[in-house]
Design brief:
This protein is α/β, with parallel strands linked by helices. The protein has helices at about 1-20, 40-50, 70-80, 95-100, 140-150, 170-185, 200-210, 220-225, 225-235, 245-250, 260-275, 295-300, 310-315; strands at about 25-30, 60-65, 85-90, 105-110, 130-135, 160-165, 185-190, 215, 240, 255-260, 290-295, 315-320. The strands form two sheets. Strands 7-6-8-9-10-11-12 form a seven-stranded mixed β-sheet, with helices on both faces. Strands 2-1-3-4-5 form a five-stranded parallel β-sheet, sandwiched between helices.
């Protein structure tokens, strides 16, 4: 009898194995303004921590604009045609392009500046559509950047602001900066930068206006060309405040903003919840909780600036 049972067990084993449902393969579309060299390491790390491994139970369709924003609509449509489960996109223009391409595929934004003002979601608490994720903006962020800049350059009275009026987040940021400047008794000069060709013209405008410093508002244009902006600032001896640490790492004087890596890791949680059945409309948009003050001491030295000890003590990183 034992022998018969063993034979039956061996005979039925393939059938039992075939009856086990295969693990569902998750398909994610990833939309970026960068290039293939810009691997979303933090997002992939967050996904791995939740059990998703690329090449095993996860497939990612990468689409990069290579810095050409005009390619966004076509690339978003391409991801939709592939019928991915979720589209992950950073910034504001990218999830907007994805939203215009689909109202059914869930979209997770990793770092949208003003998701409500740009029309990505109905509200932070109740997104109400197919978009949810994380925002980079908090109401007093622009004021803190301006205050920090004034601590480092106390003699300034005029600050030029490089921003892209075509970006809803930049509009909000500019409005907040102007309000903060009035409180601090500073004059603000608006310098619009809608594309890479406007960058040098913007600097010329700021210099003619006799700006003592400038603020660069986070935007795909300024982010992709951050090294060029930092070089122009150094050449014109203009101290500047930026939004993300990557600007300071590219040679900018200082940055104060949320951690993009932290937001990308947290975006993986949204992906996991949606893959398990949650609806984007029911997942509240989260705001930043981790900020990174970064000082580039090498740039400060070149500008003949002495960073106050109180500012250095608050810095997460001092680049020597």
């Amino acid at each position: 009898m034992r022998l018969i049972g063993l034979v039956l067990a061996l005979a039925l084993a393939p059938l039992v194995a075939e009856a086990q449902p295969a693990e569902k393969l998750a398909r994610i579309g990833y939309l970026s303004l960068g290039s293939a060299a810009d691997t979303p390491k933090a997002l992939l790390q967050g996904l791995r921590e939740l059990g998703y491994v690329e090449g095993q139970n996860l497939v990612i369709e990468y689409r990069y604009t290579e810095g050409k924003a005009e390619r966004l609509p076509d690339l978003a449509e391409e991801l939709v045609s592939l019928k991915v489960d979720i589209i992950v996109a950073g910034g504001t223009p990218l999830p907007l392009a994805a939203k215009r391409a689909t109202t059914t595929i869930p979209i997770v934004m990793t770092s949208a500046g003003d998701p409500v003002g740009s029309g990505l979601v109905a509200s932070l608490a109740k997104p109400g559509g197919n978009v949810t994720g994380l925002s980079t903006f908090t109401r007093d962020l622009a004021a803190k950047r301006l205050q920090l800049l004034k601590e480092v350059v106390p003699v300034i009275s005029r600050v030029a602001v490089l921003w892209n009026a075509a970006n809803p987040y930049a509009v909000l940021n500019m409005r907040e900066t102007e309000a903060a400047a009035r409180t601090l008794g500073l004059q603000v000069q608006s310098v619009e930068v809608r594309g890479p060709d406007d960058i040098e013209t913007g600097f010329s405008t700021a210099i003619r206006w006799r700006a003592g410093a400038f603020i660069v508002v986070d935007d795909p244009v300024t982010y992709l060309h951050r090294t060029r902006i930092a070089d122009l600032a150094a050449r014109n001896q203009l101290p500047a405040m930026y939004g993300f640490r990557q600007y300071a790492e590219a040679g900018g004087l200082m940055a104060f903003g949320t951690s993009l890596a932290d937001l990308s890791r947290r975006a993986a949680t949204y992906v996991d919840k949606i893959l398990k059945g949650a609806k984007p409309a029911d997942l509240p948009v989260e705001q930043p909780t981790q900020f990174e003050p970064v000082i580039n001491a090498k740039t400060a030295k070149a500008l003949k600036l002495t960073i106050p000890p109180s500012v250095l003590l608050r810095a997460d990183q001092v680049i020597e």
